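Researcher: Good morning. I'm working through a list of sequences from a screen, and I'd like to move beyond sequence-only analysis. For each chain I'm collecting a predicted structure so we can compare shapes side by side. This is the next one on the list. No need for commentary yet; just the structure.
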Amino acid sequence: QLQLVESGGGLVQPGGSLRLSCAASGFTLDYYAIGWFRQAPGKEREGVSCTSRSDGSTSYADSVKGRFTISRDNAKNTVYLQMNSLKPEDTAVYYCAASRVVGQCVLSEGAYRNYWGQGTQVTVSS
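Model: Good morning. Structure tokens for this chain:
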């Protein structure tokens, strides 16, 4: 079965950290750009970060620059999103998605037509 599975979400206090994982099964992430997206209650889904399939270059939304880091572990067929200095406004369901698009990855939901995970809840609250 071809799928992406996110994990690592949970409840954390403001200023805390979490590491989300996006694991692929049935296909190899090397050949895909991977994006992280999030959707807060009552809001549209937004792009958070992505890593390109070719050179591994990355991109971040302005709201998370300097706090979040995306990385790949090809041996584990997994992409991670390290989230530091978390804020209440980071609360959302986080999704990972895969795209065969080449070149610099983009944070546009429409570019990710191949696979989507089911999401993992991140709640930042004291």
